[in-house]
Amino acid sequence: MTILTRRTILKGAGATATLPLIGTPVFSAEPLKVAFVYLGPIGDHGWTYAHEQGRQAAIAKFGDAIKTTIVENVAEGPDSERVIRQLAKDGNDLIFTTSFGYMNPTLKVAKRYKKVKFEHSTGYQRSKNVASYNARFYEGRAVCGTIAGHMSKTGVAGYIASFPIPEVVMGINAFTLAARRINPKFETKVLWVSSWYDPAKEADAAKALIDQGSDIIAQHTDSPAALQACEQKGLMAFGQAWDMSAFAPTAHLTAIANKWGVYYVDRIQKAIDNTWSSGDTWWGFKEGMIEMTAYNDRIPADVQAAANATRDGIIDGSAPVFTGPITDNKGTERLAAGGTLEDKDLQGMDWYVEGVQS
Q1: From 52, 71, 91, 114, which residue has the greatest number of CB atoms within 10 Å?
Q2: 32-136+260-283 with 137-257+290-357: one CATH topology?
């Protein structure tokens, strides 16, 4: 059991008062109250499911030292502000808001509840009591792109995208750059669905991309619907945020698993220890925030080795994803040979590399 140090039993007691007097009742410290706001259902087997696995990892680590609350299916916008405000009002000490569209509502509520600590996922604005965190999903997209470059027979991939924010744009670009290092003529056709989780839209998007010549599908949306469409057509696809192979055992080549637990455990421990502070965290393969799920046996051994080499090169720094030369899809050189895009460039990315059709 983790000992809580954020509250003391004998507030104001002197340094020598190490033991209570005989007959004096000893009160246990109250558990840290931690809340999570989820965009979708925990059964989406994607984005929200991965965050829920992170919460479960924190419960396994801290046990009764924490008390957690979750709210599922919270729409971005005014609905999320009401939910976040209520969680703060209910006395939660630390609140994780787990979608990009929760950023402004989180900041707004945090201004009123200054003693509450807030953590916002995938955003870029912070304040004294609001921290931000994200995963380097694009690193995993590069691994998927390496596999796609080797395995696509048409040289065309479909990419089901949610919203044109930098996180999604850099994922599309990382995927395409990696694929074109294998097949210089590789193309990525992007279809925007304006939703993070809408199985019907995702299935329709997959079918439309297949009709346009894509024989492999990637996604930055959260349901397994696209995988199931590929399974029915005998094609290939990548899962999103967690292992989705149960839904498409033949089509599912691998997936980027978001391992939020390493972050939640770290930040909850800091809140317990009174060492929590605002900041921005962006972790990837190296820190264990993302992993590739098991490769499908249909991926040849040499392609698996190439995928692992891409991952290992990212981890040890020998092969960054965004290294020059890079030309955008309008023919303009964005990065000279030997150059590497810095984080600030990635976090504001609003252009597409050569080979992307968006």
Answers
A1: 52
A2: yes
